Amino acid sequence: MELFLLEHKKLWRKRSTKISVMLCFIYIVVFGSILSYQWFTFGSSDNHTSAFGNHFDGYSMIRNRQAYSRSFGGELTDETLQEIINDYQKIEAADIEQASDITDWQTIDNYLSLLWPELKDTDIYKIIISYVDSEKVTGLYERRQQAIESFLENNGQTGQEKDYLLRINESVKTPFHYEWSQGWATLLGDVIPDLGSVLALFLSIVLSSLFAGEWRNNTSALVLTTRHGWKTVACAKILTGFAFALELYLLLSAGNIVSQLLFLGVTGWNMPIQIVKLTAIAPMNMLQAEIYEYVFLLLGIIGFTGIVMLISSAVKNNVSALLLSLAVIYTPLIITKYLPYEIQKMLDLIPLVGNSADIFRTNTFHIFGAYIWSPYLLITVPVLIGLTCLPFTVSCWAKRQKA
Amino acid sequence: MELSLDRLTKQYGRKAAVDRVSAELGTGVHGLLGANGAGKTSLMRMLCAILEPTSGEVFLNGKEITGMGAAYRNLLGYLPQDFGYYPNYTAMEFLLYIAALKGIPKKIAKKRAVELLELVGLTEVTDKKIKTYSGGMKQRIGIAQALLNSPEILILDEPTAGLDPKERVRFRNLLADYAGDKIVILSTHIVSDIEMIADDVLLMKSGKILLQGTVPDLTRQMEGKVWELMIQPEDTKIWQAKATITNLRHEGSQIILRILSDTKPDEGAVLCEPTLEDLYLYYFPTKEGVM
Predict the structure, then answer these.
(1) Where are the alpha helices (DSSP H) in B102-133?
(2) Could you report the predicted ipTM of this complex, rounded to two decimals?
(3) DSSP B190-230
(4) pLDDT, tens digit (0-9, with 9 covering 90-100), for B59-69
């Protein structure tokens, strides 16, 4: 315990640690969360050429949008959908800026494009919600079911795989509870899923020197000739690595959640995630999805931390350890699109390479004849990879010196 | 207590840094003498079990040291040649950290650290960051950390590097006090340090131990080989070219050379009392230390 506390103190005393944590906090919480809510994502639009031309009024605009969407009653039926469309068209006719600023037009327009493509008039440059005849917008849930089935067919997901996914979808309850959704869409589709790759950068910067730094300081010979210098100190360093990862995670998650509560509130927590993406099959509400995404991030961080520590103990140079750690995550992210789909899916199992937004998708892994919905593996395999690295980290540290 | 080295060898590619070294090292101070690249550091690292021998073994009281693991490291104090430290730590913090690694309970560690800082003369800068220390002060911190656990086996690689003459004297006294029934092995380029404190000297060259013995035993081997000769200044270059000169001093308008030679180098040469430095330079005539 004492060694762990000393190692932990040592890590936090480094200037690189303090600077990394500060930059990470500024980027994720201040820029990616607070300023995004207040300014460039939810601020009212002024200069349409750039989100940075928005007004600095996100807080009040979010309140307006939430109040407006709430006026449609809570349940999403054909009738509510028609009402929303009619109201949008009325507001747009009076003031197009107002329509854009307070309505949930992106969500509804997506529904229309996906479920009623035949109503799209290619000769009209406007978005479909602007001109569609609301009377023709009927059969929301039947059309959703058809859309999922055709999507799976077009995706080559047929037979047993299709049945498996449709079985998951059967648990999704209808009619959907509806409220303003753009806040949740941004949070669950962008803010939390993007945290992983940013955290990976800062974790690499801080933790790649955890073991390798002892060679840089020329302290490895000292440490390794002490009674606890082999396994005990390696375990203390491993605990330190995880403690730091957890602290960084808690700091950023807390910052994000506080700003989420401040700007978005809790309104809409019980909406199903299908409100954000109609073809999603997971029977989850927004709160469950958020919890899933934060757990996904935590387990991914643990897995990635395990890998970084292994690299740090296996090489004697800070820069090499940093570059290798970054390569573990960013190489797959860069090259994945050029690889066959099956390989892409395997790469997604590397910690923080996969995406928590897979709960909105219908990806599966085919293992030993069984189909497994991708989030089940994406949340478990990365942490197992990281934990598997630990014994090797200890032995690399203890034996590396003896080359 | 005895360390036994049995045909200890460390090979880097084709080069043998340590070549089948066998020796018995009992309690007392053992001075390891050799030029750069002689294999001293590799030998010391193998004795610390942080460098794996290519072949051969090291035993402590008959037990192979790598098999002893933490029990062996518990007896060990080590000052590496390129002593590393954490620049942002104070001397006290650094010693407490190393004490924790050595498994010394916190209360005892603090007391011991205070004692050692006093012993190495760093009491006044205890709370200053090590990065602000001079080279000699850093070296003293290194010596202090090696002594933290009152090791039974103390291995010091170039401990006097960076110490000024006064500090060297303090270090020699400290080590002489400490040794007693413990095994102390130190390597240094400064022959006089070994001459003053080593009970036993090992002369290493090209990975091998050429000689081992007490200082009087070893210097006795040089009897009849150390000469002094008075010459004219203009003859200096001639003598430097044809003999191993270990010292040159002016006396009036003439020069007195100290020459190593198996035979009388000149009619005017007179025999003189050999020192360990003469022995060292006799075996390393083309390396440093030779004029």
Answers:
(1) 106-119
(2) 0.86
(3) -HHHHHHH-SEEEEEETTEEEEEE-HHHHHHTTTTSEEEEE
(4) 999 999 999 99
pLDDT (tens digit, 9 = 90+) per residue, A220-278? 889 999 999 888 999 999 999 999 999 999 999 999 999 999 999 999 999 999 999 99
Q: What's the 3-state SS for B228-239?
A: EEEECHHHHHHH
A contacts of B131 (beta carbons < 8 Å): none
Q: How many residues does chain B have?
A: 291
Output the pTM of the full model: 0.87
Q: Which of A394, A395, A398, A401 has its CA nearest to residue A221?
A: A401
| Of the options 1.10.300.10, 1.10.405.10, 3.40.50.300, 3.30.450.20, the CATH number for the domain spanning B3-216 | 3.40.50.300
- For residue A242, give how far its alpha carbon lies from the nearest alpha carbon of chain B (Å): 20
Q: Do A252 and A319 meet the contact criterion of CB atoms below 8 Å apart?
A: no
Distance of residue B92 Cα from the nearest chain A Cα, in angstroms? 13
Residue in the block written with tokens 């506080």:
A258
| Closest by Cα among B160, B7, B101 to A3 | B101
Interchain pair A227, B149: CB under 8 A: yes
What is the token pair recorded at A75?
């349940």
Query: Distance (Å, rounded) from C-alpha A319 to C-alpha B66?
Result: 31
Look up tokens 């009927």; give the residue.
Answer: A138
Each domain of chain B, given as residue ranges in start order, spans 3-216, 226-273
- Beta carbons of B125 and B133 less than 8 angstroms apart: yes
